[in-house]
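re: ur msg from earlier - yeah i can do the N~5~-D-lysyl-L-ornithine complex, just paste it... oh wait u already did. ok heres what im feeding in:
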Amino acid sequence: MTRLITEWIRDMKDRVEAWDESLDRQVGGGLVFIAAKGAGRSEGEIVAAREKTKIAVIPITSGQGIIEEFSRSVASILEQMKFDVFITKHTDVAGIYEAKQRDADIVYLADDDRYIAMNLQNKRIGENDRATARGYTEVLEGMSLKTRGEGIRGKEVLILGYGRVGHEMYDYLEEKGAGITVYDYNEDRQNDLRREKRKMITSARKIRNYSLILDATSTGHWINPEMLADDVLIAAPGIPFSLDYEAEQKFKGRYVHDNLEIGTAVMLAYALGEE
Ligand code: 2YJ
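and the outut:
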């Protein structure tokens, strides 16, 4: 799994508003819309929760420790969704205690393995892998509706990368009734796919044959323009971003990629209480 580095998120708090607007233009809805869709809720429920939900972001020092700007970036995404957010002064267990003392309803916390939003009132948890997979599947569907006037039900979608997020994408695409093919260069994962009798391609040259792609790989910059169909749409949570510089230029407007925003937004929709 990719550990975020400060460089990738440094200016997030200054860019999140513009990013949200560009998401809206490309997908037909911004962060709140995607959060609601990804968690199977209505936008109204999220809007109504703003007034009564206080969120604490707790820096966690375990493992490789604090990532400078991580808590600030998470907070800025939740603020962009117009929620009341604070970052605890204390870290770790003392931070959880502080959050509770200051009346937080939901806490956000991440170590090197898991990133979760936990509702202290009702025990609901928004988990980042699932939230990211579902949010980005909705992004792909939104892009497809916007540019082609059709959703992804009955269409073939290629998942790149069969790790934790790739698996979650598979389950959600199945729920949505899409056809699914997976590409992973790792032989152990190819064997898993064979065992599970799931459709796959093992040659990166075949990626060109697909016009809907969900990318959950973390190699970075391994896709060049010749590897993609001209009309491709790509929803790509994998970090670092898979497209190389030329592909990024050529396919501008045909992909959505972020470093933290969509997963964080969908986690909130999962963690919120029932109406
Ligand atoms: O609190 C902090 O500053 C750090 N403990 C944050 C750690 C963030 N964790 C990661 O980057 C992990 N790779 C998990 C993120 C899951 C993204 N899918």
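cool cool. Residues 128-148 form the longest helix (21 residues). ping me if u need the other ligands too
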